[in-house]
Design brief:
With about 130 residues, the protein is mainly β. Helices cover about 5% and strands about 50% of the residues.
């Protein structure tokens, strides 16, 4: 397999499990580091705030119907990006939102082991 076998993050003072991703709009483009909140209630891959999507110049791919936590159904625009994921470039779908922090969802966690140690304020993803 090759590449990194572990990604480390932290738990902030608000209890959010955070990890830094290396993200780019397309293969070969310059990478930008982006801190994402691990959200195990989100079944997709990534949610990124609209302003960040614009700043990164991510290409739009489609739109999806999404169910919000309050039960509301909304249509959200989706975009694509490339992330460095355990030593490989991986194309992922990004859902746009109005939030402040990007969210990393279960779609990227299925084949990984996530450990969050709240007392030590550490996160590891293997």
């Amino acid at each position: 397999t090759g590449g990194d076998t572990l990604m480390n993050g932290e738990v902030d003072l608000s209890g959010r499990a955070l990890i830094v991703l290396s993200i780019r709009p397309s293969h070969g483009a310059d990478a930008v580091s982006l801190q994402a909140w691990v959200d195990t209630a989100f079944t997709g891959e990534l949610v990124i705030p609209r302003a960040t999507i614009t700043r990164l110049g991510l290409p739009q791919s489609a739109a999806v119907m999404a169910g919000l936590a309050d039960g509301t159904q909304v249509v959200l625009d989706t975009f694509s990006c490339v992330i460095d994921w355990f030593g490989r470039e991986r194309v992922v779908e990004v859902v746009e939102n109005d939030g402040n922090l990007p969210l990393l969802g279960v779609g990227l966690l299925w084949e990984r082991k996530l450990e969050i140690d709240y007392p030590a304020r550490t996160l590891s993803l293997a």
